[in-house]
Amino acid sequence: MTRIGPTIVVRGEVSSTGDLDVEGRIEGPVWCEGQAVTISPSATIDGDIVGRDITVAGRVTGTLLATDMVELRTTANVQGRIVSPQLILHEGGTFHGEVQPQKLGAALTVARHRRKESSS
To answer: What pLDDT is attached to residue 120?
Structure first.
């Protein structure tokens, strides 16, 4: 598991081939396709997140694209779009945006294409 500690600020893309635990701040996209991403209550992410399972207890602004599940815990504050076959919203969690479970395949294809273009 990779951990971004509470005093770390990352500006730019974060990519991990293992599970990712974020306690700090990320300003940019997070790419962990096939892996679990956990955003702790102290964490803030301004950017899209791609992962297998995404668990949010902190603040996220962007698209959450999960191939299995998105879980928004009681301290979560999410603004954006969720594309996932399963969404769990715990009482007290805040979500402003739209949920599009039926568009997972298309959204993943677009995300992969955009990532490939930005790395060229």
So the answer is: 66
Domain extents for the chain?
Answer: 2-119
Inter-CA distances, 34 with 18, 49, 58, 65, 116, Å? 8, 12, 21, 11, 17
Q: How far apart are CA 98 and CA 117, in angstroms?
A: 26
* Cα dihedral sign, 67-20-8-113: negative
Tokens linked to 22: 């974020």
Q: For residues 6-15, give the mean pLDDT.
A: 95
The pTM of this model reads 0.90
- Given a cut of 80, is residue 118 above it in pLDDT? no
Q: How far from chain centre, in Å, is Cα 44?
A: 11
**What is the C-alpha separation between 54 and 39, in angstroms, rounded?**
8
Biggest CA–CA distance in the chain, Å, is: 42
Residue 37 has pLDDT above 80, yes or no: yes
